[in-house]
Every structure is written in structure tokens, then in C-alpha cells.
Design goal:
Order of helices and strands: HHHHHHHHHHH
Structural class: mainly alpha
Helix content: over 70%
Shape: elongated
Amino acid sequence: MTLKKDSVKDLPQPVTQRGEMTRRKLLEAAENEFGAKGFHNTSIADITKRADVGQGTFYLYFPSKEDILRELVRYMSRSLRLYLSEKVAGIRDRLERERLGLRAFVDFCFEHKNLYRIVMQAQFVDEAIYQDYYRTIAEGYISGLRSAQAEGQIRQGDAEAQAWVLMGIAHFLGLRYAIWQEQAPPESVLQEVATFMASGLRPLAHEREKDGG
């Protein structure tokens, strides 16, 4: 996929610790404003007021309101991938990684509700950065599923299709409980979804026989 030019341009980077702190304050302010009021109902003045900086300061770090939203989407992507990798570190069994990863994803959504909402808003602001968010996550997912297939841990098949299906399950689970209901899903729901996912991924009988399982 080719991203729009303005979606990948380099943003001005702070050269001092104070500058980095100001940039961080702007990002946090934008996260809260966009999450509470939505992108289109938030002005740059709203962001700078919450960050307690002059409006002109905003443009030293972000050329536009769209650019700060893009940066938040990138931050969400990096944070989510790091969080999930830490939660399943050391777990080699793929089905167990999926179970733990599902729970971790829902927990992450609760902790970052505003960022989760911002990602969804991005599709109406810059579809390229919105697509890139999911494609980047999918790339790592696909790689992990292919490795698990090669080891005979999960059924053979189109790893890309498997990845998008699993991402869709996690997305709507997080959306329903973390964003819409703002309450943790019952343990029975998490267990049911994990069982459903495992049923779809578990090697077929003839694959187990081939591997001597």
C-alpha cells in the first residue's frame, strides 16, 4: 500500500528535554480532547489550552491538527504491539498465546480508551494512516501464525486470512466492552471466545496424524 505523502512526512523533532516535554503535553492534550469530543469538534486552541501552551507553540511540533492525530495513531500502534508482546513473552504454544493475547488486548483497550477511539476516527480523517495501523499489526500477526503452522501448532492455511479474522474478533470484543459498555467482559465470555478461536486454529486430524500427534 502506498500512503499519502502527508501521512508519512517527518515531523519536527524536539532537540531539548524541555521541547520533548512540550511535545508530549500536546500529544496528551490532543488524546484527551479527541477522545472526549471527537476530532472534528476539537480545535487546535482546545489542545493548546489543555496543554497550557501558546497556540503558536503547537505549530513548532505539528503542522496541522491532522498531523497530531496521525502521530497518535502511530503511537497507539507501537504501544499496542509492545504491550501484547510483553504479555505473551516466553509463551511458545500458539493457542495459549492467542488466549493470553485476547485478554491483554481487552485490558489495553480499557487503559487507552481515547487512543482506541482516535484510531477509529482516523478513517474519516486520513484513511491511509488508518489502514496502515491495521496492516502493520497484521504483518506481525501473519508472521507469527506462519511460524506456528511450520511447527505444526496450528492448522495449515492462509495465515493472512487467519490473522484478519482473529484481529476482527479482538477488535469487536474490545469495542463492545471497553468502549461501548465500559466494563470488563465476563470471564465466561473470554473463555468462550478463546475456545472458539482455538477450535478454528487447532490442527486438523489428518495434520496431527502426519506430525505423529
